[in-house]
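Data availability (excerpt). The following record was deposited with the supplementary files.
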Amino acid sequence: MDQEKNCVSRREFLSAAAVAATVMAAGPMFKVSAKSEMKMAMPDIYVCGVCGHVEFGAAPENCPICHAPKEKFTEKNTLFADAMKKFPEVSPSHDPVISIKKESGLVPEIACKEVSVRVGKHMHPMEEAHHIKFIDFYIDDKFVTRFFPNLKQYPAVSYYTNAVGSKVRMVEFCTVHDYWQAEMAMA
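Predicted structure:
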């Protein structure tokens, strides 16, 4: 009789298992503080000492840009916060501005998203001593491609992707004001 009180129905068991699986899957995305508040965790940030490429989560075996070995990467978890703290007044000309169109006007015959970025709400200058060296594109924190604007180009570009993901992140490097980033949901 006591055993019957401790039994659960198949439906209750499956429901509890689904909740447990969801919590376990989401667990690495959250950190629980001493006050039991849940906060989104920023993935670890690693920077290639050769070309400046940024990796999220873990350093790769080889840099996808310059092919430098893992040993050339340095962990710099405060990379973006340091730039904002050091140069708060330049945020309007350094924060990447992202837009995503679900259909492309340039390549309408292929199902793809048009992802565009420009550096700054106020266009960033492109001068010899002060310019954007590169803009890196990520989908779900996985590197996709790099754009190298030259001094005769504005730091703005579009690319077309059929990749599936939940967010796009852009990282740009200014020769004077360091690294800046922005992200946007892909949906």
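Summary of structural features: Residues 13-40 have pLDDT under 50 and may be disordered.
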